[in-house]
Amino acid sequence: MSEIANTIFSPETAARFDHLVTIYPLKRSALVPMLLYAQDEIGFVSDEVVREIAQRIDILELDVRNVLSYYSMLRTKPAGKYNVQVCTNISCMLRGGYEILDHCKHKLGIGHKETTKDGVFSLEEVECIGACCWAPAIQINYDFHDDLTPEKVDVLFQMYRDGQGKDEK
Amino acid sequence: MPTLVSHPDEVKVVSRRFGMGAANIEKYIELDGYKAVQQAIAEGPEWIINTMKASGLRGRGGAGFPTGMKWSFVPKQSEKPKYVLVNGDESEPGTCKDHVIFLHDPHAVIEGTMIAGLAIGSKVGFIYLRGEYRYLLKIVEKAVADAYAKGFLGKNIFGKEGVDFDIITQTGAGAYEVGEESALMESLEGKRGVPRIKPPFPAVVGLYGGPTVINNAETIANAPHILLMGGETYAKLGSERNGGTRLFGISGHVERPGVYELPMGYSLRKAIYDVAGGIKDGKKLKAVVPGGSSCPVLTADEIDVGLDFDQMGKAGTMLGSGGIVVLDESVSIVEFALRTIAFYQHESCGWCIPCREGTDWIKKTLTRVYNGGGSKKDVDNIQYLADNMMGRTFCPLGDAAAMPTLGFVKKFRKEFEDYIEGNKAGTPIITVEQLVGAH
Fold first, then answer.
1. Which residues from A are below 8 Å from B187, CB to CB?
2. Which residues of B touch A70 (CB under 8 A)?
3. pLDDT for A94-121, tens place per residue?
4. What is the pTM of this model?
5. Exposed (0-12), middle (13-18) or buried (19+): which is B233, by Cβ within 10 Å?
6. pLDDT score, position A88
7. Which domains does chain B have, with CATH numbers?
């Protein structure tokens, strides 16, 4: 039973949030993880998410929005079911990161921060994801895929389309 | 999944358990895990700090501050609780070493956190991982839960009355800036990750206003090994005033990229040509960014230098985070400089004007140069802007953007000038449209 009446989250997430606000010396420390976990469930940080999290932490909605706008992984609009994040920072750039990005754009028919019409994929060019030694690398939602070629990207996209892709939350 | 690599010149300390299934607590215990922390409980804080001082271990995040000394700065008496904070917000482009530690040896981070806690008299540690490392966060969370289940964490750890230690894991949500220690504390307190002014330093006023030791994940993971082998033994593995070994992530144009553990002071030339197998496809070396993207570039003639903090400093660059990025002859330095500053412009939090405006103007100017509309005055302007960012910001992000920029324009000035005159070296990769619209 969630401590918030009419919670917008699933019982599991609501329970997790009930717990999360109790573990830190200050409740507010739960804010960044909560925003991320909320996004994982809802798909983006909606007005309702902002409202409930503000209530849970007992801060202003403005405080939540202020933090929300700082972190690049948090978004206020929906993305595709699978958000493809292509790293083009230096190590990936040297090993074909831009080629992978161009290939994704072409293959999915979308650009940076756009979503396919069927809502399955969205695409994002991102900064270094910490997979430099296994470049070029991408993340699809939270899953890393490295040492890529355009051919390997095709196989990955097909796997995700067929519902066979990894999707750890 | 990151591929594990190996080379005979490696000296494996912190990577000793990689690939051995040590994320499993039983396996970790079998491989001497949680012995060091029990010894630390028995011997006490002074012994821990003295051993760490003797080891010559210097911060593996990039600054290279002596770890034992950092721990000794924390006041013994404090009205506010003290904290240990592990920085796993690994975000410096070219750096992926903490990635493999969390993946292969999460308990070493946990044990190291406990040791740091015992050293400074703290009962709570935080392990902060960047938001992108969700799968690693789950590995660390599982390891923490297993340690609690064994009675290694919580109240009366290892059955020792009155010895308590808790660990809380935390995730970021995408921000390079949060890798800076005071920004990380802001983030952990649920705020925007903007830096705090220093002093006061974290050892006195840190997380939640309490005295705090903040260390990079690799630094912390070394602590148990150092206590077990002895500070002097660890120190001897490295070079003068640079104790031990460290993880080097070699990436870019090499035959065998990967994370290798090499003794401090190991030759950069050998790291590139022997350990990482030389330049990819038999091409020629053009330049090396030796310690993550914020370090000034070295030319192909400058790689006969030992990989430690002091030797790299003498060579006019930095050891940084140990991320060695290798550039072959096909790279356009103009383009590489542009991609580097584009990153810092994107990540500047905007708090300090020299950094916010400086990164933006350098990016704009370099974009014009790259696009073919530059003049020689632009190169002077870039240098002028970067010079004026140095040392004028709360946190090192301003310097981190200025230093590589200065390195590129000073060492490759002729290439910039030739480029402006239409003689473009290297093979361009980025279209300007891609870069400008990107973020």
1. 32
2. 175, 192-193, 349
3. 999 999 999 999 999 999 999 999 999 9
4. 0.97
5. middle
6. 96
7. 25-237 (3.40.50.11540), 245-328 (3.10.20.600), 333-438 (1.20.1440.230)
